[in-house]
Amino acid sequence: MPLREHLAELRNRIIKSGVAIALGTVLGFFLYEPVMGALAQPLKDAEQRGILASLNFDSVGQSFDILLQVGLFIGVVVASPVWLYQIWAFIMPGLKAQEKKYAIVFLSVSIPLFVGGVVIGYLVLPQAVQFFTALIPDGGTNFIPANVYIPFLLRLFLAFGAALVLPVLMVGLNMIGMLPARTILNHWRITVFLISLIAAIAAPGGDAITMFYLAAPLFTLFGVAIVLCVLNDRRRNRRRASTEADIEAEIAAGPKPLSEL
Question: TM spans, by residue (predicted)?
Answer without folding.
Answer: 14-32, 66-91, 103-125, 152-176, 188-205, 211-231
